[in-house]
Amino acid sequence: MIMRYYVNPEHPIYKSDGYNYTQPFPNLRLTYKLSDNNRLSFFYNRRGDRSNKVDIRIFPKYDDAEIIKVGKPTLRPQFTNSFDLGYKSNWQDGYFFSSLYHKRMNATITRISSTVRGSDIIYNIFQNAGKSCNTRIEFIVSQKVVPWLYFKS
C-alpha cells in the first residue's frame, strides 16, 4: 500500500509535513487439523485505515444546530494488527467453536467533543488518540435438536 498526502504549505491555519510511506500489509491464515473433527486456527491481519473525507475536511459541517463537525487535515492513518486463535470441534449434527481475538491499533482515529466556555455549541473534532486495543473471547455451541430446530448458544 502506498500513501501520499500533502497539505498546502501556504494554508493560513493548518500546517503539516504530510506523509509518504510504503509498508507491507500481510494477511496470514493457518489451520491445523488435530483430527477429523477438531481444528485449530490462527489468523493474522495488518491494515491501514485512512480517514474519511469528512474527517480531514477543514470546513465545518452543520448537521445539527448545536453540534459542529470539523475535520483535521493532519489526521494520520490508523494502523491495525489483528490476531485470532480459534478451535472448532464437530460432532454429529453440531459443533463447538471458541476463539480468542486481540486487535491493536496505532494512531487510533477518534472523535473528541469539546465546548467553548460560555457557549452551548459542541465541536466534534477528529484526532489521532495514540494506541488502543480490543480483546474478546467467544464461545459458540450449535446442536440440531430435531430436523427443523437448531440450538445455538
Helices and strands in order:
Layout: E1 2-5, E2 19-22, E3 27-35, E4 38-49, H1 53-56, E5 61-64, E6 67-70, E7 78-91, E8 94-106, E9 109-115, E10 122-128, E11 132-146, E12 149-152
Parallel strand pairs: 6-10
Antiparallel strand pairs: 1-2, 3-4, 4-7, 5-6, 7-8, 8-11, 9-10, 11-12
Structure description:
By secondary structure, the protein is mainly beta. It has one domain. It has one helix at 53-56; strands at 2-5, 19-22, 27-35, 38-49, 61-64, 67-70, 78-91, 94-106, 109-115, 122-128, 132-146, 149-152. The strands form 3 sheets. The protein has a 6-stranded antiparallel sheet with strand order 3-4-7-8-11-12, with no helix packed on it. It holds the Pfam family OMP_b-brl_3. Residues 17-151 form the Outer membrane protein beta-barrel domain. It is found in: Cell outer membrane. One of its GO terms (cellular component) is cell outer membrane.
Features:
153 residues; mainly beta; six-stranded antiparallel beta sheet; four-stranded mixed beta sheet; 1 helix; cell outer membrane; membrane; Beta-barrel_TonB_sf
Tally the helices: what do you get? Answer: 1
Low-confidence stretches: none
Please tell me the overall pLDDT. Answer: 85
Strand content: over 45%
General form: elongated
Q: What is the helical fraction, as a range of percent?
A: under 10%
